[in-house]
Structure formats: structure tokens, C-alpha cells
Amino acid sequence: MPGAAHHSDHYSLAVAAVTTAGLAAVSYYVYCKLRRDNKSPGDSKKASVAALEIPDDEDHKIYIYFASQTGTAEGFASEIADEAQELGLHTEVVDLEEFDPDTFMEHKNVIIVAATYGEGDPPDNATEFANWLSKEATPDFLENMK
């Protein structure tokens, strides 16, 4: 099936792009926050991550979606959430089996941790997400997301 391979490549590329963008956004946000906090007169240049006070609201929450066949990606998603929480970030881990397009598009900060199996096929819990992504993927459809 030549079309299936192309579909799988398109899905894998989109998931990789979204995941990379999410990790970059979180890193940049923490970097900017630490840098801004360190510019106060009399403060040492060494940042205290524990001193971060990030609002607990939807604009600052990081949603970590996972797609996993065996549980490995779920474990990675939980580890990311734990480490982000240690930095003072607010997170929510979401199984892609619970995927709702309207809710997903409302999120500002998203990380997707996805496994594949076979020849790059999405795990069972990500089938609906993969179908939605392949139908909706345009160059700017996730432009409001980090």
C-alpha cells in the first residue's frame, strides 16, 4: 500500500514537529523566566529553579499527551511531567485515547510523546488522533500552540 506509507510518514513528521516545538517552548519559557528573574539588582547570577512562581492557569499549563502500545511512552510522559513539576511548571498527562479535537485545540502548551509499532503505525490509543491529524494538518493549523 503506497498510500499507507506516505500517510505514516506524514503522521510521524507531524508528531515529531509538534513534540519538538513543545519541548522547545517549555525550555525557552523556563530560560526566559530564569533570565528575567536574574536581572534584579543584588541578585546572584545563579538561578534558583525552585523560586519560579508560574501561574496555575490554562495559559501556563503544559499538557503532555502520550500514545503508547506497551506503556513506554506513557512512562516517558510521566517522567517529563514529574521533571516539569520539579521546575515549578503545571502539567497534566493525557492518554491520547481520551483525545478530543476541540479540547486539544484550546491548549496553548502541548508535548506529545508517541511510540510507533510495525512500520511506523500509531499505537491503538492514538488511532483517532492520527486520523484527525492527517485530515487537519496544514502548515498553520497549530499556530496558536507551543
Description of the structure:
GO terms for molecular function: flavin adenine dinucleotide binding; FMN binding; oxidoreductase activity. This is Flavodoxin-like domain-containing protein. It comes from Perkinsus chesapeaki (Clam parasite). It holds the Pfam family Flavodoxin_1. The chain has a domain at 55-144: Rossmann fold, CATH 3.40.50. 46% of the residues lie in helices and 12% in strands. The chain has four helices and three strands. A three-stranded parallel beta sheet has the order 2-1-3. Strand 1 (62-67), helix 2 and strand 2 (91-95) form a beta-alpha-beta unit. The chain is globular and about 45 Å long. 23% of the residues are buried.
